[in-house]
């Protein structure tokens, strides 16, 4: 997504522009994978937080069709192919991040405010499954939205995002102590990035400086023991608003946007060849998305179908 002033311009364009972009990576014809469509969201939304939690796919907050932030929380049960509402967030948020640590679910950061002004949040909320309620936890040191979160060794790593400007902030949350501490910052400050944990390291993937600004293909890899970053193989094309997931011994990246471009790409990092390869493209190109892995499938609910504001109820799932 983009900041409110630019958003007002793109709102008028969202329904009529946006070239759907395929991956430029080599295509895997032998094992392209398969997409299936499941029960749609109850209402269209994008710039959501998505997590796998206790056997459910959870979609949190985001923008609705009007561009106003939402407190809505929905759980998807893959056994019944059904969405159900859960307790809303304590406040409406768009561009938050979410992750489950064992049987605990956390929502981190985001923006409050809608079409006129976005205010970055440092809030952290934990979901109490037994009570269907949210609890407030220690705030992040750096208020920001459009950040990414990954889990390593039972701790949350909050990466990048933006407040008044993009940041390389990298802060780690200790669940037991309910305390944040800063560690070595991202090499390239950016927001609208994705983050995963792979091979015992945190990967920060893609992102951008702004909707009209630099779109990064960067893959940066964090070693917690050394508190240092190294450079991974970059994506075939830079973009923000993408999703990433780990399934087995593979990293997958989905969708995203750049000015006047919307990505339908599904790309997999091949460890042996140290390269990205293209898989079966998304049925509906989207950005402002997240990914959740359950039982050998990657679920991607909601998102925007054009650059800017174009929320959808689409809910697709990819399997290798």
CATH superfamily: Kelch-type beta propeller
Determine the number of helices (DSSP H or I, runs of at least 4 residues): 1
Residue share in helices?
A: under 10%
What strand line-up does the widest sheet have?
Answer: 2-29-28-27
- The dominant shape is globular
Number of domains: 1
Spans with pLDDT under 50 lasting ≥5 residues?
5-16
How does the helix and strand content classify structurally?
mainly beta
Mean pLDDT: 93
Q: What is the highest CATH level, the class? A: Mainly Beta
Describe what you observe in this structure.
The chain is mostly beta strands. It has a single domain (4-319), classed as Kelch-type beta propeller (Neuraminidase). Helices cover 2% and strands 39% of the residues. Strands 2-29-28-27 form a four-stranded antiparallel sheet, with no helix packed on it. A four-stranded antiparallel sheet has the order 3-4-5-6, with no helix packed on it. A four-stranded antiparallel sheet has the order 7-8-11-12, with no helix packed on it. The longest helix has 8 residues, at 4-11. It starts with a helix and ends with a strand. Mean pLDDT is 93; it is low at 5-16.
């Amino acid at each position: 997504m983009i900041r409110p002033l630019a958003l007002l311009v793109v709102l008028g364009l969202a329904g009529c522009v946006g070239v759907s972009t395929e991956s430029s990576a080599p295509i895997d014809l032998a094992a392209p994978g398969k997409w299936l469509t499941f029960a749609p969201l109850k209402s269209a939304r994008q710039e959501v937080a998505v997590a796998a939690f206790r056997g459910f796919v959870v979609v949190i907050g985001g923008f609705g069709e009007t561009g106003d932030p939402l407190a809505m929380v929905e759980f998807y049960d893959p056994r019944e192919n059904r969405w159900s509402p859960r307790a809303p967030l304590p406040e409406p948020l768009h561009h938050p991040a979410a992750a489950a640590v064992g049987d605990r679910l956390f929502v981190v950061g985001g923006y409050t405010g809608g079409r006129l002004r976005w205010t970055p949040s440092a809030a952290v909320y934990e979901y109490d499954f037994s009570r269907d309620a949210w609890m407030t936890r220690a705030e992040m040191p750096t208020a920001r939205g459009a950040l990414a979160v990954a889990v390593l060794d039972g701790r949350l790593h909050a990466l990048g995002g933006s407040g008044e400007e993009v940041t390389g902030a990298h802060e780690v949350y200790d669940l037991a102590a309910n305390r944040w501490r800063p560690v070595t910052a991202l090499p390239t400050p950016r927001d609208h990035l994705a983050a995963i944990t792979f091979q015992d390291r945190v990967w920060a993937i893609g992102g951008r400086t702004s909707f009209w600004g630099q779109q990064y293909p960067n893959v940066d890899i964090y070693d917690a023991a050394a508190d240092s970053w190294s450079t991974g193989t970059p994506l075939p094309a830079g973009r923000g608003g993408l999703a990433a997931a780990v399934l087995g011994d593979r990293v997958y990246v989905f969708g995203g946007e750049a000015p006047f471009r919307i990505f339908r790409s599904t790309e997999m990092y091949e460890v042996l060849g140290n390269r990205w390869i293209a898989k079966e493209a998304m049925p509906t190109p989207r950005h402002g998305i997240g990914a959740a892995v359950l039982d050998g499938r990657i679920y991607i609910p909601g998102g925007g179908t054009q650059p800017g504001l174009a929320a959808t109820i689409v809910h697709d799932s990819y399997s290798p």
